[in-house]
Prior knowledge:
411 residues; mainly alpha; two-stranded antiparallel sheet; flat
Amino acid sequence: MLSRTIVLRAMLVALAASALLGIASIFSPSALGTNLLLTAIDIAVASALLLPASPRDQGGRLDLGQRSFVGYIVISATLVGFACWRDSMPSNSVLSSLLLLWFLVGVPAIIVGAPALRSRRDADRSLALAESIMIWGTHAALLVPCALTLLGMGRNFTESLLTPLAFVALGATVAAATSAIGRRSATTDGFATTPDATGFERRIAPIGIACAALAALAGAAALIEQYRNASAGLVSAPTPIMWTVMTALAAIAAPIGVWNGLGLARVQSPLRFLRHAAAISIGMIAALVAYGLATHAFADRANDDLLWKLIWTCIVLASTSLVGSAVLMRLNRGRAIAADRIEAIAWRCPRCETRATIGLGESCCATCGLAVRIDFRDDRCPGCAYDLRGQPEGAPNCPECGRVRQVMTRG
Length: 411
């Protein structure tokens, strides 16, 4: 069973082997020694990367995010290990294509899928649809092209077709998953619960998911047509019309995804307009690109300068709005909201570090059996900040604003 102790021991063995092989290569250089040295370094680096995802104790359970990360690192180390010995292999064209695709698409896929994979640790059921779309989409965007390459079907067009197809799939996955956030309900347990979705968010969520899926299909069709034109030697072939269709659909799916995604922010200030600015500016970027492709405005130098100026203006507005929204979401995370009542918390066992969601009262860790009792009491009203410490313990409401108090349970 994987644990930090096992990973650290493997790392020490690999480091010792690399040191000995490195010294041996200095005095008697050979191809075999070089290959062994590179393999030892590969194992040492992989062991170091596995440390953050390894449980502290042997027998500890890995969640979905940790399993995905461990699997990616193990396969990456295996591919790099084969690459270290590729000079002694009869053919390495498939390995080179697979290695390039695995890292070129895999690293963005891990980054894109990390939020969905990590949120599963806290048993967040309110965003299950968005998480499922993100997880399945990122895995398919990475594994399907790699499988085609491994089977020899993508050997000749890995760089020119499969890699762009994977990035189109990743973009559509992000748009669909963030759009699906609008289908959530306020059932997340924690100190700052996820706000309930509005009726508008629920109505536009299916539209965003459908447009993202259609945009992925249109992008795939455009890439395939463009690849066929290039294979036939049609250098001056016209731009596939499906690119225009894809960007037009993206002009609908992307703003919906941004709007519903930023709906998770609990911002109670005039700065909420950043949500509008981000959604509108991102939609304008896709709309302007679609206009340029449909009217061939990019080929006209007079219109090209103005069109690109408008696109870059929207890019600046979108980037600043998204960064500002992310900062506000971080500032408001965990802040007490007047209408919230804490019924459970996301908890990590201090003994075995098992994560779980536990309710008020007595509970115990499912792994090591450590008993814990959780109680909350409002000593200061989260609605008006009135000091409640002098009030009778059984008083049900705040005497200042009338908000219902949260008092300790009696068991």
